Amino acid sequence: MNTIPEMQAKLDALRQKPAVRILAMESSCDETAAAIIENGRKIVSSVIFSQADTHALYGGVVPEIASRAHVDACDRVVDQALKEADMALSDVDALAVTYGPGLVGALLTGVNCMKGLSYTSRIPLVPVNHIEGHVSANFLTTPDLEPPFLCLVVSGGHSHIVRVNDYADYTLLGQTVDDAAGEAFDKAARVLGLNYPGGPLLSRLAEGGDAHFLTLPHPHPDGKYDFSFSGLKTAFLNACHKMEQKGEELPRADLAASFEQAVVDTLCEKASLAMADFGLSTLCIAGGVSANRRLRQQLTELSRKQGFRLCMPELWLCTDNAAMIGSAAYYRMRKGELAQLELNAVPALSLC
Length: 352
Ligand code: KG4
Ligand code: ZN
Known about the structure:
By secondary structure, the chain is α/β, with parallel strands linked by helices. It has helices at residues 4-14, 52-56, 63-85, 104-121, 130-141, 181-191, 198-206, 230-245, 252-278, 293-306, 315-318, 323-334; strands at 21-26, 31-38, 42-50, 94-100, 125-129, 149-154, 159-166, 169-175, 282-286, 309-311.
C-alpha cells in the first residue's frame, strides 16, 4: 500500500506530459493481448495471441484452459509489444489492464501480471472496464471523434446501447434482457455444424444465402431500447430441428442468412430509434459483432437515410485486443484513476 502516494504523484504528473504512452493488457476471455498506445489515439504496437484454435476443440471457451493459456502467454505478449514499439519498459508512462467483465481466472491472470509489473517497475497502473475498451476502439479508428455520441456495443457477452456523455462517462439506454447478440450467433452457428467462434463463420456462410428463406419472430421487450435474442434463437433452433426430423437436408446458407438478417434488423431498429430520440449526430459501434458485414452495411444505409455520422472500428479492433484498453486507460488516467494494490478481477463489472 505504501507505493500508492508515489504512484498517484506520478500519474498526476502525466496529465501535463505531451506524449503519454500506455502499455495495456487484455485477458478477459480467450485472447491474451498487449499494446502500446500514445495519447489514447495512436497505436504504437499491438500483439494478440488468440486461443481460439484450442477452444475450438471443445466447441467453446473452457475457462480453466483459458486461464492457463493466459499464464503462458502474458509475459510473451508484453515483451513482444515492447519489442515492436522499439521501447524499454522504462519508456512506458503508465500500465493498464482489463479487470472486468469476463472470466474470473482469465481476468486474474492479466490483473496479477500487471500489478506485479507495476509494483516492481514503479509505473502507475490504470484499471479498465472491458466494455469501455470496446467503445474506445472507435477513438483509435476515428481521430476526430469526440463525445457525446451513441454507441451500440455488441459482443459475445453484452448487447448495449449507451450514450457516451463524455470520456469515461456513460448512460446505459438499453441492453439485452436475455442472450447477447454474439452468444445468439454462436448458438445458431452450432446448430448449423459450425465451430467456435460461430459468429464470423455463420456470417461467411450467410453470404450465399437467401435471407427471406425463414421468417423469425421480431421480439419487443418492455424497455424501448432493450434487445431480446432468446426467442429468435429458439425459433431458429426449432425450425432447424424440425427439418432434420423430417429427414430434410438443411439449406445452411439460407438459414444462416435468415438468422443473421433477423439479428441485424433488431440491432438496427433499436439503434435507429435511439438516434432519432436523442438527437445526437454520431453513432459508433463496438464489440465482436460489430465486425459483421451485414450489420455494417445496413447501418451505413441507415446513417445515410437518417442523416447521422456512423463510426466503425477497423475489423481487427472490433474483437478483443489490448489497443482498445490502452485508449480507454488514457482517458481514465486523465481523471486521475489509479489501481490500488488490492485491485481484483470483477467478473460481472458493469459499465455504468
Ligand atoms: O467482443 P468479442 O471479441 O468478445 C467479447 O467481449 O465477448 O466478441 C466475440 C463475439 C463472439 O460471439 C463472435 O461469434 C462474435 O463476437 N463475432 C461475430 C463476428 N465476429 C465476431 N458475430 C457475427 N459476425 C461476425 N463477423
Ligand atoms: Zn470483448
